[in-house]
């Protein structure tokens, strides 16, 4: 197996091109998998449509939703790629969900979800980088949510999802980079910094086995924050304080203002 992997890498091919005694593929397409990840959205949307729910509270609830779906992702397997023009339709409680594949290289699908209280729309795809024993998935695209009552719109950015030990060693999952929810009209943004440990070339040797799932973040005005692109970390400008803050572990708990 190691000999095949070495030849594969030298020739510039992916390790998944070989038939190996491992289970990495999901029977669902990427559209079905994306819809499955949205199963918690009704619970959070209900909290966002309350008359007492302001912009800060909506940023909070939508951020909690994005952090939580990463916990659902733990049994992740590589989904099947749909063909061009393939569609998928489902219903999550009273939310109608529509998906269509609009490009195959890279595989991109557009989505539209709605009920009487909100609509969510955009496009999504995974940009994958594969090592000998690891898989890095960058979530790319655009995800917007608009509330019908007041036409307030929020934009999401999603994090990087990494899997190590896909061929040998212990399977571990790690999140990298950031999650953000922004509201352009008010200029406010919720920023989450994720803190994974980088791994060695084989995703097992040379890396720290204790994969941290800790995160921190805050809600603030965009003009009062800094972003360090080299470390992918959001922070407050000197002398500025956040409106609210987040801490916790995405696999265990989420603390909002230390509660």
Structural commentary:
The chain is an alpha+beta fold and 259 residues long. It contains 4 helices and 17 strands. Strands 3, 4, 5, 6, 7, 8, 9, 10, 11, 12, 13, 16 and 17 form a 13-stranded antiparallel β-sheet that branches. Strands 1-2 form a two-stranded parallel ribbon. Strand 7 (134-147) and strand 8 (153-157) form a beta hairpin. The model is unreliable at 12-22 and 196-211 (pLDDT under 50).
Q: Would you report the number of β strands?
A: 17
| SSE arrangement, N to C | HEHHHEEEEEEEEEEEEEEEE
- Major beta-sheet overview: 13 strands, antiparallel
Shape: globular
Question: How many angstroms does the end-to-end distance come to?
Answer: 49 Å
Distinct helical segment count:
4
Overall pLDDT, averaged? 79
Helix content: 10-25%
Radius of gyration: 19 Å
Describe this protein with a few key phrases:
single chain; 17% helix; alpha+beta; two-stranded parallel sheet; 17 strands; 4 helices; 259 residues
Quick summary:
It is built from four helices and 17 strands. It is α+β, with helices and mostly antiparallel strands and 259 residues long.
Topology of helices and strands:
Blueprint lengths: L1 H9 L14 E5 H8 L3 H8 L6 H18 L5 E3 L6 E6 L2 E10 L2 E8 L3 E13 L3 E14 L5 E5 L2 E5 L7 E5 L1 E6 L4 E7 L19 E8 L3 E4 L4 E4 L7 E6 L3 E4 L3
Parallel strand pairs: 1-2
Antiparallel strand pairs: 3-4, 4-5, 5-6, 6-7, 7-8, 7-9, 8-11, 9-10, 11-12, 12-13, 13-16, 14-15, 16-17
Helix pairs in contact: 3-4
């Amino acid at each position: 197996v190691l000999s095949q992997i070495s030849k594969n890498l030298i020739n510039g091919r992916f390790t998944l091109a070989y038939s190996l005694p491992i289970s990495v593929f999901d029977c669902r397409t990427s559209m079905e998998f994306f819809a499955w990840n949205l199963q918690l959205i009704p619970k959070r949307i209900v909290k966002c449509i309350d008359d007492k729910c302001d912009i800060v509270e909506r940023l909070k609830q939508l951020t909690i939703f994005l952090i939580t779906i990463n916990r659902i992702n733990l049994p992740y397997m590589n989904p099947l790629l749909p063909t061009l023009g393939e569609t998928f339709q489902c219903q999550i409680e009273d939310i109608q969900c529509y998906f269509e594949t609009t490009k195959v290289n890279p595989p991109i699908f557009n989505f539209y979800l709605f009920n009487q209280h909100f609509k969510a729309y955009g496009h999504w795809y995974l940009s994958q980088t594969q090592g000998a024993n690891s898989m890095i998935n960058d979530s790319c695209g655009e995800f917007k949510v608009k509330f019908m009552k007041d036409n307030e719109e929020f934009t999401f950015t999603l994090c990087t999802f990494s899997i190590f030990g896909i061929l040998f060693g212990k399977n571990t999952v790690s999140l990298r980079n950031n999650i953000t929810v922004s509201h352009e009209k008010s200029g406010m943004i919720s920023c989450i910094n994720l803190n994974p440990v980088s791994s060695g070339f084989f995703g097992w040797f040379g890396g720290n086995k204790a994969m941290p799932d800790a995160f921190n973040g805050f809600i603030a005005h965009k003009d009062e924050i800094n972003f360090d692109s080299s470390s992918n970390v959001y922070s407050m400008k000197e002398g500025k304080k956040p409106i609210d803050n987040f801490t916790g572990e995405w696999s265990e708990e989420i603390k909002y203002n230390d509660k």
